[in-house]
């Protein structure tokens, strides 16, 4: 009989990317044009002064991760919707939970991944709830918001362009993964060839 531990309480079975996901702005790599010290966005995030926003950029630039970091600083509940797999029913359910949070004195961030996949009327469904403060809206898109999102939604959110990671950024991500003994491969006998 093996003494193999089947304790799933830690994150050892999560993919490396999930284990290494940044938990704060100091751990977030890239997007220095938005997140460098002294820039308006990190000052607002660190102060917990949220505003609705659209995070626009290519896949793999950290849109979802940035939304999660923002939520941590805001001490807000997060409702997540994927426009690929959700519809009006899921929007209504998320808004209802946000309304309950507001009534209990808690903030809610509604994160909508691939927001450009929602049609114009689905996008309109968020407007009254952004306006009355029920939600702080964060949408992520790989498509140009000026063409794919309706103007009413755009007028209620700031658009932030996330750029592809640089070679230096990617090297820094790899360095962290290889050296972090808690979440990454630090302490293991692994060598990257290249």
TrEMBL record:
Keywords, comma-separated and alphabetical: ATP-binding, Helicase, Hydrolase, Nucleotide-binding
CDD domains: AAA
GO biological process, one term: DNA synthesis involved in DNA repair
A GO term for molecular function: single-stranded DNA helicase activity
Residue runs in coiled coils: none
Keyword ATP-binding included in the entry's annotation: yes
SMART domains: AAA
AAA+ ATPase domain span: 49-165
Pfam family name, one: AAA
Name of the featured protein: Replication-associated recombination protein A
Protein species of origin: Klebsiella pneumoniae
